[in-house]
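ugh ok fine here u go
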Amino acid sequence: MKPMDETAPDKEFGRLLRQWRRTSDIKQSRLADILGVTQATVSRWESGAQSPAPLQYDLIHQMMTRKRNFRLDHAVKRLVMHSSQRVHLIEDRSHRLLCASRPRENEWQRDCTPLLGTSLWRFATPEIASAEKSLHALGWHEDQTDHLTFETSRRDGDPMRIIDTYILWERFFLSDGTAVRLTTGFDQKPAHI
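structure:
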């Protein structure tokens, strides 16, 4: 893709974006969710009425040029679900649960099926919320860092049981361009990270 003037709408870019999105079977609303904008904004980009901000343009470019590998996505899900560690996978920005391991379900003392597709943010401890706030300064969404380890408090009761003493977040992308966060819990500070 050619470099883009940030202020000038680009009808050719919009046409290519629409073509890629349709070929990839991604709805405007889904792309909007991935990029943190509204569906109407994606529509304006595709019509050439508006251009994405530079960061969004870079993310779109990465998604459009990345080879999609659904088999790899399914392998990641399978590895998470069959892991012997307390681990779960969420969408990075929305915190929506994609899958969880059996040990994580045991920790939560519930089947995760009703939670799939819903945000886990309401269950965050104060330390998780603080770590989330630090991500911008770390360049998390600009790919300047891809992992973070922090200490958190345990919680035995409502709204959700958390027994991790340390949490490791690792960020990567699925084949549709969705940024995801692998969340692993530890009883002791991991030495290998």
